[in-house]
Design brief:
Blueprint: H1 10-39, H2 46-56, H3 60-77, H4 79-88, H5 90-110, H6 118-144, H7 151-179, H8 182-212, H9 215-222, H10 226-230, H11 232-248, H12 261-281, E1 284-286, E2 290-291, H13 292-295, H14 299-326
Antiparallel strand pairs: 1-2
Length: about 325
C-alpha cells in the first residue's frame, strides 16, 4: 500500500489524514445533531421538542466546525481536487448549505419568536436538517461512483441521500436515548428501532456498490491474502448492528445503565464504514482520477499550512471535550436568558 511513495509523500498523507479525521468527526458528532433535527417534529409534544433541542444546544456549533476545517484543508492542501469535487457536486453542496443556513436560523428563532410561530420554526429546523443530511448522502453516492453521469448513478446517489438521512436519524435517536429520559426516551427508542433497518440497508448497498464501481477497488478488497484481514471490518460492523438491535429491545431501563450503548455502537459503525471507504479509495482523492500526491499543493505551502492545522486541531478538540464534560448527563429543560 505504501510501497512506492513519491519523495516528500508524508506531507500529502498528513493532510489527507487530518482532512479525513475532520470529516469523520463531523459525521459522527454533527450527524447526531442532524439526526435530532430530522426527528424533531416526530414528537407532538412541544416540551419534548424543547428537550430535544436542549440536548444538542451546547454542542452543535462546535460540531459544525469540523466540517469547516475539513473543507478548508481540502481547499488549501489539495486545491485541484477541491475544484474538481465541488464542481461535480455543485447542486448537493448548494442544497447542503441552504439546509445548514435554514437550520441555524430556525434554531435561533424558535426560542425567541412569538409562541404561535414556534411550531413553524420547528418545521423549518427539521426541514433544514433533512435537506443537509440528504445532500451529504447525495455527495457520498456521487463520490463512490466517481462522479459518473447518467440516470443509474443519479438514482444511486439519491438513494444514498435517503440512507445517510436514516443513519443520522439512527445516531440522533441513539443520542436521545442516552441523553433523555421518560416519555421522550421511549419515543427515541422507537425511532431508533425504525431507523436501524434503513441504515443497515444503506451500509449493505454502499458496501456492494463500492467494489463494483472500480476494478481496482474490487481487487483491493477480494484479493488474497488481504481478504482474510479485511474480513474483520464487515464482521465488526455486523456485530455492532447486532448490539444495537439487541440493546434497543431491552430499552428503556429504570437504571439507565445501558442508555449509552446504542449511541456508542452506532458511532462505531460510522467509524468502521469510514475506514472501509478510506481503504477503498486510497491514495485517490478524486476516485481513479487524481491521487493525493498529484493534487497536493507545493511543499512550502503545505509546511506553512501544517503549522496552522497542528495548532487549530487541538484547540477544536479541546473545546469539544470541554463542552462534553460541562454539559454531560441527561438534558435539562431548555432555557433562554
Amino acid at each position: 500500500m505504501f510501497a512506492e511513495l513519491p519523495p516528500g509523500a508524508w506531507l500529502p498523507i498528513a493532510f489527507a489524514a487530518l482532512m479525513g479525521l475532520s470529516m469523520l468527526l463531523y459525521a459522527v458528532l454533527d450527524g447526531a445533531d442532524l439526526g435530532v433535527g430530522v426527528l424533531l417534529c416526530s414528537s407532538p409534544v412541544e416540551a419534548e421538542r424543547d428537550r430535544m433541542i436542549a440536548s444538542i444546544g451546547p454542542f452543535w456549533d462546535a460540531n459544525e466546525t469540523w466540517l469547516v476545517l475539513g473543507v478548508g484543508l481540502l481547499l488549501v492542501a489539495f486545491p485541484v481536487a477541491h475544484g474538481m469535487v465541488l464542481t461535480a457536486l455543485y447542486i448537493p453542496v448548494l442544497l447542503m448549505l441552504v439546509g445548514l443556513i435554514l437550520r441555524g436560523v430556525a434554531f435561533e428563532f424558535r426560542g425567541k419568536a412569538p409562541e404561535a410561530q414556534k411550531p413553524g420554526w420547528d418545521v423549518a429546523f427539521q426541514a433544514g436538517s433533512i435537506l443537509a443530511a440528504f445532500s451529504q448522502g447525495w455527495m457520498l453516492g456521487g463520490y463512490i461512483l466517481g462522479f459518473a453521469e447518467g440516470v443509474v448513478p443519479l438514482l444511486f446517489a439519491l438513494a444514498c441521500g435517503v440512507f445517510v438521512t436514516a443513519g443520522y436519524a439512527l445516531i440522533g435517536a441513539a443520542w436521545l436515548v442516552w441523553r433523555t429520559e421518560g416519555e421522550l426516551q421511549i419515543r427515541a427508542v422507537a425511532w431508533a428501532r425504525r431507523a436501524k433497518w434503513l441504515t443497515l440497508a444503506g451500509v449493505l448497498a454502499v458496501s456492494a456498490a463500492t467494489p463494483l464501481a472500480s476494478p481496482r477497488i474490487m481487487e483491493r478488497w477480494f484479493a488474497l491474502p488481504e481478504l482474510l484481514g479485511l474480513a474483520s471490518i464487515p464482521v465488526a460492523v455486523g456485530t455492532l448492528f447486532l448490539i444495537v438491535f439487541v440493546t434497543l429491545n431491552h430499552l428503556p431501563r429504570r437504571d439507565h445503565r445501558l442508555d449509552w450503548v446504542p449511541f456508542v455502537a452506532t458511532l462505531g459503525i460510522f467509524v468502521l464504514c469510514f475506514q472501509g471507504l478510506a481503504y477503498s479509495f486510497w491514495p485517490y482523492i478524486v476516485p481513479d482520477r487524481l491521487t493525493i500526491f498529484e493534487a497536493a499543493a507545493a511543499r512550502e505551502s503545505l509546511l506553512i499550512i501544517l503549522f496552522g492545522a497542528v495548532f487549530v486541531l487541538p484547540v477544536i478538540g479541546a473545546y469539544t471535550v470541554l463542552v462534553w464534560r460541562i454539559f454531560g448527563g441527561k438534558a435539562q429543560s431548555l432555557r433562554y436568558y
